[in-house]
Amino acid sequence: MIFILIAYFWGGIPTAYILGKRMFGLNILHVGSGNSGATNLMFQTNFFVGIIGGAIDVFIKGVFPVLFIKYLVPGNDLLHYMFGIFLLIGHNWSPYIKFRGGRGIAIFMGILFALGWMEAVLVLIFIQGLNYLVSFTINKNYFEPSFWIIIWFGYLLFTLFFYNYEIDVKFFISISVLVILIKRITANFEPLPKNITFYRSLVFRLFLDRDILKKNLWVGRKNFFSDKKNSK
C-alpha cells in the first residue's frame, strides 16, 4: 500500500503547472484546454518550455520511479504494473491542484518504456511523426494528435489480445487506457458546453480531447475557470 501511495503522490506532482507559475506567472488551469500537461503548457508559453515539461513527465515522473520500484522490489510484476497505474492516476487527478491534472500520455510513455514496452513507445512516436508530416505538408488543420492517440490505443489493445500476454499485462494496459479515456471524457470537471448536444460533446472529448471542433478557439481560451484560490 505504501508504494501505491508513493506512486500516486509522485505522479501527482503538477510539472507543467509549476513551470507555468514559476516561469511565466501563468495558471495553465485557467487557459487553453485547462490541462496541467505539457501540451497545454506548450500552447500557452512556447515550444521549448513544453518540451521541458514533457521530458520531465516522461523521465522524472514515468521512467525513473518505475525503474526504482523494479530495482527495489524485483520480480513482483503485479506491483510494478500497479505502481505504474497509480503514477498515471496521480498525474491525471493531482492531489496538489484539487484533483485536476494532465491527460497522461507523456507519463504513460515513460511508464511503458520502463516496463519494457519500447515497441509501443516507438509506434506512438511514428504515428505522431506521421501526423506532423501529413498536417504540415498538406493542411495544418489535420494536426490532431489526440485523434491519433486513439489509433495508438487501438494498436495497443489489438496487440494485447492478439498475442498471448499474461493477465497482469492485459490488466495494466487495459486499465491505463481506460484511465486516460475517463480523464478525456470528464476533463477537469469542466461542464459540457450548453450550445452543443451532449453526445456530440462526448464524441469531441473522446476523439479530439476538447469540447468544440475548432482547435484554435479551444487552445486560445483565457481565464475560463472561476477558481480564485488556484489563480493566486
Task: Note the main attributes of this structure.
232 residues; globular
SSE topology:
Elements: H1 2-11, H2 15-24, H3 38-44, H4 47-72, H5 77-92, H6 105-114, H7 118-137, H8 145-162, H9 167-186, H10 198-208, H11 215-219, H12 228-231
Helix pairs in contact: 1-4, 1-5, 3-4, 4-5, 4-6, 5-6, 5-9, 6-7, 7-8, 8-9
The count of strands amounts to 0
Instruction: Please identify the structural class as seen in this structure.
Output: mainly alpha
Shape: globular
Radius of gyration: 17 Å
Number of structural domains: 1
Report on this structure.
Residues 226-232 have low confidence and may be disordered. The protein has one domain. 68% of the residues lie in helices and 0% in strands. Helix 1 (2-11) runs antiparallel to helix 4, helix 4 (47-72) packs parallel to helix 6 (105-114) and helix 6 packs antiparallel against helix 7 (118-137). It is mostly helical and 232 residues long. It has 12 helices and no strands.
Q: Would you summarize the structure shown here?
A:
The protein has 232 residues and is an all-alpha fold. 68% of the residues lie in helices and 0% in strands.
